[in-house]
């Protein structure tokens, strides 16, 4: 039985979260750092699933191993679901501070009760033979007017979880993994993982 999964992301924040969760499950994970040749995959899909699949396929070619790719983003109701699949390149390309500033500017003047949003993750796990396992996860919260907290990455300082009374950036990584879109997508995938992996 093959034992290694390559986490095919260039995002250090995602990689940290995946490593924590998979280590607890006793699964050996590698990252793109273990493979010297890996140019970035263009995310030309129209959905999270299409983009995750493009990354899984692209990096499977590079590594020849089983690959897990994540496509995720923040969907803000008042912005009609934006930034959505464009979350990483909303303002600057992979510039978290610029992306957060753009969201805050666009949300200016929108009252608390209309600041609802959700984070979404779609995971595509692809075996070398092309078989796929897909997982999805969502978490609902609100967009603050002022960033709070120093943990996490991306839009975490703006994403407030009412039931915790904290933003994602104020949670420990364990706490975040228990409730986050990514944590839930991993759980969703894991429900069917054993059957897929054997
Ligand atoms: O838990 C999260 N907490 C805060 N922000 C998050 C989270 N999860 C996704 N995000 C944001 C970051 C990025 O702006 C976009 C994902 O874009 P996405 O293309 O999936 O990832 P990426 O380009 O950073 O790395 P890669 O494509 O190599 O996996 O959504
Ligand atoms: Mg990306």
Short description, anyone?
This protein has helices spanning 12-24, 48-63, 96-106, 173-179, 181-191, 193-197, and strands at 4-7, 28-31, 66-76, 116-126, 132-143, 159-161, 166-167.
How would the blueprint of this fold be written?
Blueprint: E1 4-7, H1 12-24, E2 28-31, H2 48-63, E3 66-76, H3 96-106, E4 116-126, E5 132-143, E6 159-161, E7 166-167, H4 173-179, H5 181-191, H6 193-197
Parallel strand pairs: 1-2, 1-3
Antiparallel strand pairs: 3-4, 4-5, 5-6, 6-7
Helix pairs in contact: 4-5
The structure holds 2'-deoxyinosine 5'-triphosphate and magnesium ion.
Question: Descriptors for this entry?
Answer:
alpha/beta, 7 strands, 6 helices, globular, seven-stranded mixed β-sheet, binds magnesium ion, 198 residues, Maf protein, ITPase-like_fam, nucleotide metabolism, magnesium, metal ion binding, binds 2'-deoxyinosine 5'-triphosphate, hydrolase
């Amino acid at each position: 039985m093959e034992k290694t999964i390559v986490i095919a992301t260039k995002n250090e924040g995602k990689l940290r979260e995946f490593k924590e969760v998979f280590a607890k499950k006793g699964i050996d994970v590698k990252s793109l750092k273990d493979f010297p040749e890996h140019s970035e995959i263009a995310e030309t899909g129209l959905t999270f699933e299409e983009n995750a699949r493009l990354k899984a396929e692209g990096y499977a070619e590079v590594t020849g191993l089983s690959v897990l790719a994540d496509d995720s983003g923040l969907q803000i109701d008042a912005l009609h679901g934006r930034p959505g699949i464009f979350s990483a390149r909303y303002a600057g390309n992979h510039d978290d501070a610029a992306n957060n500033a753009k969201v805050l500017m666009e949300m200016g003047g929108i009252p608390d009760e209309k600041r609802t949003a959700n984070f979404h993750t779609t995971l595509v796990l692809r075996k070398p033979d092309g078989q796929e396992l897909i997982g999805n996860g969502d978490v609902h919260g609100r967009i603050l007017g002022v960033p709070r907290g120093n943990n996490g990455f991306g839009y975490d300082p703006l994403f407030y979880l009412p039931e915790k009374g904290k933003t994602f950036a104020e949670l420990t990584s364990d706490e975040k993994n228990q409730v986050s879109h990514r944590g839930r997508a991993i759980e969703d995938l894991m429900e069917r993982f054993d059957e897929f992996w054997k």
